[in-house]
């Protein structure tokens, strides 16, 4: 069976999975998350390069993976060149949608909400230089928001005051915010509630799903399978596993498996 591998540090990549599954519902998916090293936004660069390259190539050696999606901005803005060197299949990365934001913004003042690592990356600075040189860019890096998204999928509601505090540097300053972390797309509606209608909130998930579908069609790699049989692998035991399994099950996965190759 031919599978698409979606990889993240946690459950954030599910925002990418949902769009891919909407577009190509019969494609078999393996979702793998490195919760042993979560949160990636707090990891050293060399640790991330070793872990992501090691795990993704081990999964590709073990399973018949036809395409990899690094559903993590923190990893993609760093490891894509290393990974593409290692693998002969397409590797799709998820990086902040700076270019569309610069085009959409009327005030030419945009925001980037990402992990602390992503806002510091040379890759991100280059994106801004290349595509948002005419804009003022306010960047906020928040690990707390990543944790809040993880908790939400385990049944803990997002605290509005805390969310407001994280978003406060953007308020009244920007008219478009880029969600540069896949976790944040899972709470996009809550972020929109706080920032209001005068500020657009955008992410990369739909365009990534289009890219993935395009690749698979071009390469004739579409694999067909019954629904509700996607697989999910973790690198460590999972907090609130029963609750999270319910969530995974509802969106088409079997129960989470610990994978020894991690
Ligand atoms: N979901 C990830 C991203 O898009 C990383 C979150 C984390 O582990 O810090 O950046």
TrEMBL record:
One Pfam annotation reads Asp_Glu_race
> Pathway it belongs to?
Cell wall biogenesis; peptidoglycan biosynthesis
Q: Which UniProt keywords apply?
A: Cell shape, Cell wall biogenesis/degradation, Isomerase, Peptidoglycan synthesis
Residues making up the signal peptide according to the UniProt record:
none
InterPro entries attached to this UniProt entry: Asp/Glu/hydantoin_racemase, Asp/Glu_race, Asp/Glu_racemase_AS_1, Glu_race
**EC number, as in UniProt:** 5.1.1.3
Residues holding substrate: 8-9, 40-41, 73-74, 182-183
Q: Which GO terms describe its biological process?
A: cell wall organization; peptidoglycan biosynthetic process; regulation of cell shape
Which NCBIfam families does the annotation name? glut_race
Task: Give the protein name, as stated in the record.
Answer: Glutamate racemase
């Amino acid at each position: 069976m031919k599978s698409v591998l979606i990889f993240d540090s946690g459950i954030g990549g599910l925002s990418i999975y949902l769009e891919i599954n909407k577009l190509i519902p019969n494609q078999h998916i393996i979702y793998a998350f490195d919760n042993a090293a979560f949160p990636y936004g707090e990891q050293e660069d060399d640790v991330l390069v070793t872990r992501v390259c090691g795990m993704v190539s081990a999964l590709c050696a073990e399973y018949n993976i036809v395409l990899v999606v690094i559903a993590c901005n923190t990893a993609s803005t760093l490891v894509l060149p290393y990974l593409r060197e290692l693998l002969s299949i397409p590797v799709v990365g998820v990086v902040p949608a700076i270019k569309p934001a610069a085009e959409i913004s009327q005030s030419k003042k945009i925001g980037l909400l990402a992990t602390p690592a992503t806002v510091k990356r040379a890759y991100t600075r280059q994106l801004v230089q290349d595509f948002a040189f005419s804009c003022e860019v306010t960047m906020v890096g928040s690990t707390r928001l990543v944790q809040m998204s993880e908790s939400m999928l385990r049944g803990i509601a997002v605290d509005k005051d805390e969310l407001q505090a994280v978003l406060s540097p953007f308020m009244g300053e920007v008219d478009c915010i880029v969600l540069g972390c896949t976790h944040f797309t899972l709470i996009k509606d809550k972020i929109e509630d706080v920032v209001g209608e005068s500020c657009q909130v955008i992410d990369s998930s739909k365009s990534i799903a289009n890219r993935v579908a395009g690749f698979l069609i071009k390469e004739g790699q579409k694999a067909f399978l019954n629904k509700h049989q996607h697989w999910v692998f973790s690198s460590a035991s999972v907090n609130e596993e029963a609750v999270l399994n319910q969530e995974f099950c509802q969106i088409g996965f079997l129960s989470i498996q610990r994978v020894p190759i991690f």
